[in-house]
Amino acid sequence: MTHEYTDDERALLRAVRHLVRADRDMRARLSAAMHVNPTDLRSIRHVMRAVEPDTPDTPDTPDAPRASPGGVTPRKLADHLGISTAAVTTLVDRLVASGHLTRAPHPTDRRSVILLPTDLARSQMDAHLADMHDRMKKIAAAVPESARPALIEFLEALTREMERDRLDVTRP
Fold first, then answer.
1. Is 121 a domain residue?
2. What is the model's pTM?
């Protein structure tokens, strides 16, 4: 396995690292501005994407829920976050108390509830993200159409590789 990179390869990977760091920092600032922790923010975004397909957020990601007027069950939210249903109950209690989510009766299962975003969650997301998403759209539009397929494939291939469970921490 070789680790010698060309200058262009190194610059590409450095740009990806900078993007990942900027995204992480932006989410931390958004969490702080909304007075929620990062997991709470992921929860709010997940519920909003499930209910409102035009939420200004990451476009159609593989793990994004499909728009549904029915909301998200706590079980589905727990699965999405990779946490227990007991932990999600505490999380949902916190987000209901903060005014970001509401619980509603499940339309077909009387034993369950669905989670819905509140007007507060919508307005905070819009206030903090709408302008940034407009700027990001302009940047994306400036990428030449002929370069887009290669750029998309590069980012998707890098994502697939990073998601693979190949890190061997036992080697020196």
1. yes
2. 0.76
